[in-house]
Amino acid sequence: QVRLVESGGGLVQPGGSLTLSCAASGSIFSIRTMGWYRQAPGKERELVAGISRGGITNYADSAKGRFAISRDNTKNTVYLQMNSLKPEDTAVYYCNISPGNFWGQGTQVTVSS
Prior knowledge:
By secondary structure, this protein is mostly beta strands. The protein has strands at residues 2-7, 10-12, 18-26, 33-39, 46-52, 57-59, 67-72, 77-82, 91-98, 102-103, 107-111. It contains no helices and eleven strands. Strands 2, 4, 5, 6, 9, 10 and 11 form a seven-stranded mixed β-sheet that branches. A four-stranded antiparallel β-sheet has the order 1-3-8-7, with no helix packed on it. Strand 7 (67-72) and strand 8 (77-82) form a beta hairpin. The protein is globular. The termini are far apart.
């Protein structure tokens, strides 16, 4: 069984920053890809950023230049540094790992003044 525990969400003013963390534990042999998705009310879940085991990253257009994804393979942990946050970034953010397509429980990020 694989468990993903996310942390770091919260309420932040526009222009502020947050860092999300997701730690994976359990029956993990080799995590290939780690990623962050988000889902806003009334919208579909969308990819925010992903990172391969070797450190190759990809970002949604909305995240480019503002967000940075990183990972620590020794800790099976992925991070998402979010800067210059906007109200439209408000969503529940989910961690995902593959193979296996495992999901975390989600952490709320609210950007509001």
